[in-house]
Design brief:
Helix content is 42%, strand content 31%. By secondary structure, it is of the alpha+beta class. A 4-stranded antiparallel sheet has the order 1-2-3-4. Strand 2 and strand 3 form a beta hairpin. The longest helix is centred in the N-terminal third of the chain and has 20 residues. The N terminus is likely disordered. InterPro entries: DUF4019. Keywords: Signal. This is DUF4019 domain-containing protein. Pfam families: DUF4019 (PF13211).
Length: 140
C-alpha cells in the first residue's frame, strides 16, 4: 500500500503542471478553506487528524499508522512554517492514476524555519458527500 501511495505522490507531482496547461479555473472558496484547514493540522504535527480529515482515496493509499510516521518524517526536519502564500489553484476533472472527479490542485510557496523556500502541492477532491478532502500532499 505504501508503494502505491508513493507512486500516486510521484504521479501527482508530475501532473500538477499538466492541469495548468488545460486552462483550469480558480478553485471554489470552500475547497481553499478545506486545504488551508488541512495544512493547519499538518503544521501542528497532527498526523492523526490529517489522516482522519483526508479523502477515502488517501486513506486507501496509506494506512493510518504509516501516515503517522510519514508526515513527521517529512515535516519535522523543515521546522515550523514561517510563511505560506497560495501561488495557484487549478480545477481539473482528470488526473493520472485516479478516478475522474472534481479535483483542485493547490500550490503554495512556503517558508519553514529550516528551509526558506519550499513548494507545497495539495490535491483536494470533492467527495460524494460534497466535502472537499485531501487526496495528496507533496513538498518540494
Amino acid at each position: 500500500m505504501r508503494k502505491l501511495f508513493l507512486v500516486f505522490l510521484i504521479a501527482f507531482g508530475l501532473c500538477v503542471h499538466s492541469a495548468v496547461a488545460f486552462g483550469a479555473t480558480t478553485a471554489p472558496d470552500v475547497a481553499t478553506e478545506a486545504a488551508e484547514a488541512w495544512l493547519a493540522l499538518a503544521d501542528k504535527g497532527d498526523a492523526q487528524a490529517t489522516w482522519h480529515e483526508a479523502a477515502g482515496a488517501f486513506k486507501a493509499g496509506i494506512e493510518q499508522k504509516d501516515w503517522e510516521k510519514t508526515l513527521p518524517q517529512a515535516r519535522q526536519p523543515l521546522g515550523e512554517v514561517t510563511s505560506r502564500k497560495l501561488q495557484s489553484s487549478e480545477i481539473t476533472t482528470t488526473l493520472p492514476g485516479v478516478a475522474d472527479g472534481e479535483y483542485v490542485i493547490f500550490r503554495f510557496q512556503t517558508s519553514f524555519a529550516n528551509k526558506k523556500s519550499a513548494s507545497e502541492a495539495l490535491l483536494m477532491q470533492k467527495e460524494a458527500d460534497g466535502v472537499w478532502r485531501t487526496v495528496g500532499y507533496f513538498i518540494q
